[in-house]
Amino acid sequence: MKRILLDSDVILDLLLERQAFCDDANMLVLACEQKLFHGYMTPVSIANVYYIFRQNASHMKVIEQLQLLLKIIGILNMDQKQVLAALDSKFTDFEDALQYYSALHSNKIDAIITRNVKDFKKSALPVFSPAEFLATFN
Fold it and tell me: With a threshold of 0.90, does the pTM exceed it?
């Protein structure tokens, strides 16, 4: 079974119902709920999603939505090793670097799903947009 890291933008597309992207995000999370894939996020993603989603919803709504999501999506570990690797990396986006090294060092992730594929050019892991990833399984 494929194990995928869902980038913050994918989760925000779902929770904020971003029209151009929410259908694919919803299909990915539903596929994880149906155990077609194992979905993961990082602690950094949870914090970012909370912060951005909170600008559009009450604290309680954000917490409820994250609690529901975390019944479906797992959390990867992140420690000093991943942070140092991200700091030493060539990534220009530090959040992406943190997520990448968390995924890489976990030995659990088969692919990264993001709308910012270009930010992961040097990834040793396959990187797909939500639409590209879903198309490979249809």
Answer: yes
Count of C-beta atoms within a 10 Å radius of residue 135: 11
Tens digit of each residue's pLDDT (9 = 90 or more) over 71-106: 999 999 999 999 999 999 999 999 999 999 999 999
Query: What's the CATH number where 118 sits?
Result: 3.40.50.1010
Distance CA 125, CA 53 (A): 28
Could you report the per-residue pLDDT of 22-32, keeping only the tens digit for each?
A: 999 999 999 99
- Per-position DSSP letters for the chain, written without gaps between them: -EEEEEPHHHHHHHHTT-TTTHHHHHHHHHHHHTTSEEEEE-HHHHHHHHHHHHTTS-HHHHHHHHHHHTTTSEE----HHHHHHHHTS--SSHHHHHHHHHHHHHT--SEEE-S-GGGGTT-SS-EE-HHHHHHTT-
Tell me the residue range of the domain where 75 lies.
Answer: 2-135
- 138 vs 133: CA distance, rounded Å: 9
